[in-house]
Amino acid sequence: MTNQKYSVTVEDLGITISTGSLAKQANGAVTISLGETCVFVSATAAESLKPDQDYFPLSVDYREKFAAAGRFPGGYFKREGRPSEKEILTSRLCDRPLRPLFPKGFMNEVQIIGMLLSADLSNEPDVLMVNAASAALMCSNIPFNGPVGCVRIGEINNQFVVNPNNEQLFESRLDLIYVGNEKDMMMVEGSADQLSEERFIEALEFAHQKIQGLIAAQKELAQLANVQKKQFPLVTVDPKVFEICKEYTKNKLRTAVFQDNKAARNAAVSALKEEVTKHVIEQFGDADLEAYHINLAFEELQEHEYRSNILDANKRVDGRGAKDLRPISSQIDVLPRIHGSSLFERGETQSLVLLTLGTSKDVQELDALTGGAQSKSFILHYNFPPFCVGETGRIGATGRREIGHGALAERSLLPVVPPEDEFPYTIRIISEILESNGSSSMASVCGGCLALMDAGVPLIAPVAGISTGLITEFTDNGKLSRYTVLTDILGAEDHFGDMDFKIAGSREGITGFQLDLKIKGLPIEIAKEAIMQCREARLQILDLMAQTIPEPRKELKSSAPRIHQMQIPPDKIGALIGPGGKNIKRITEITGATIDINEDNSGNILVFSTDAEALRRAVEEIELSVGEIEVGKTYRGIVRSVKDFGAFVECLPGKEGLVHVSELAEVRVENAEDICQIGDEMVVKCVGIDEKGRVKLSRKAVLLEAKGMIYEAPEGRPRSSSREGHGNRSREDGPRGRDRGPGRRPSGSDDRQRSRD
Questions:
Q1: pLDDT per residue over 180-224, tens digit each?
Q2: How many Å apart are CA 690 and CA 359, to the nearest integer?
Q3: Do 446 and 422 form a contact (C-beta atoms < 8 A)?
Q4: Which of 225, 162, 179 is nearest to 30 (CA)?
Q5: What one-character DSSP code corresponds to residue 561?
Q6: Which helix (H) or strand (E) holds 647?
Q7: Which residues fall within 8 angstroms of residue 232, CB to CB, at 6 or more apart?
Q8: Least confident range of 33-47, 602-616, 677-691
């Protein structure tokens, strides 16, 4: 926006960030623009804490205004409603790199709100949201150890591209969103087309160079705004409470946490915490003690117990070494009538995956306010019910975490799903997490791959996923002194550790990734080690999955729909549809099949049915609707009108020919009405088509040939000496087509949508 007081521009990226004039009652507010896409972001902090608050309540919300693209919201209420998946994923994308950069002990509620004000339908606003949120915090009085810069990296023709537009993204084999500070990376997420680990690392290094201009611009803008940081009170544990808890739990806490079973470990820790609480209260008395001090102390003691044993003894609470995987098992075909199913278990994480194959009518339409794909035919939904972690809870709308984990698993599998011209089905996967103790999203990737192979989807390559964690130790001056990268982290190792780096891929390379940190940056050398450690574990998992099913089934399940692809002349589409859709409705009603006509008028037709006979008949009816009457072919037609000189018979829908009175019977016929009436069924043979396209039919030829006699065609008509059989309103000869064959959805669709959500 041009009316802001202060403004800076990153010339090589074409990004402008401004502040100073809008939303002046917020702690900080900026606008950011790229092309004609503009995003506004505010940052506001609460002045005081809630009683006994022992956590940092940061909320990030991004919303897209339909006015930004010159549109009205759909539906009855012309107002934006609940956030879309794209808005939720953008909010999560922004939250994760900012959260570690607030000072330890700062627990005042912070709310960051972003609004898409203008959309040019070419430049994606998600990376702008992250940069603007960082800039808003920098220009506010809220304590923040930033800034961070965010870019999207694509790879087109073996060249890295910074912030590719929507059109370029369809050509890119990499969609990497990278967030970092001046020295280290903070967060990455995205997908790739089986990109090698070496090339992926090159992309990370390239991205880190490109964010430096954004970081410098934010620092310059903060200097121009010149807002002094406020000294908010920090929440820390009372040293006396900490020492009492430490002394009481000496040796007891290690016994409690070092157990293989999560439930037993949690029970032991909870029991010990109750003991500690009673002991501390006895020392202090209720009136002199705030409850959050015990919570903070016990949390810090657990964190030390988990981390010190890994760093000092290379021993994890379940007895594994740093690179060891938990036991893995898998099954397929676990439920009847399901098109594809699997059960994948890794330690105490368990995913039941259900797969459904559908037609083009089942695609998910996308209200793409910012451009990009308009629909997608590969969908993965992830559900995380409370019982999977042994808890009770409310079952309601899908949570932001579930949407985020489902999107990660979806984009990890998408690159190996065959294109729609090879496998023209809509695919929906549901991952039901039945048990969780670490990286259930990667279990969903593994289980999803198994379900795809069980369903007979011809995957380009099998895919598996795994998560790595990190334990670090820093000197008093903030320098990293030692660290350990962990393979296949537990839930507690995620909670008390410093990193959750999920990578999925095939044997050839990476397909999906996501990095979350709790420290203020990840050095690239540690990232490289984690990437290669993920590859080592991934290959082990793929070997174990191959023991369950080495390759996709050759045939679909009997309950799955079959697809037949056929091509008709584009000028025959109208004849197939019929007036007001009458003909195509008739075909679907009498056969039960689903017919999809390509909307680009190419003449490509897809026919879907779970019944082979219904599919055959639907194909036959389509051929009848768009076919032409051919000389020498026999048809079972309907008499549409009777004249003195003969009868007009409809051989194909909308296609008629004349049976001259002399061709109605083997004997002389004086009156055509003696042989037939309007609406009668008549088997006839096409014996000629004149230069004006008029069709000449003969009932006489059919009668003679049925007796094995030779039909003598009248002068000027072709002679036929072959015996033609009778079809059911169609020719008997000719190809019927395969029950299943390759097909393609309309070219305007997204070809499985190379997902960036």
A1: 999 999 999 999 999 999 999 999 999 999 999 999 999 999 999
A2: 43
A3: no
A4: 225
A5: P
A6: strand 646-652
A7: 45, 106, 108, 142, 143
A8: 602-616
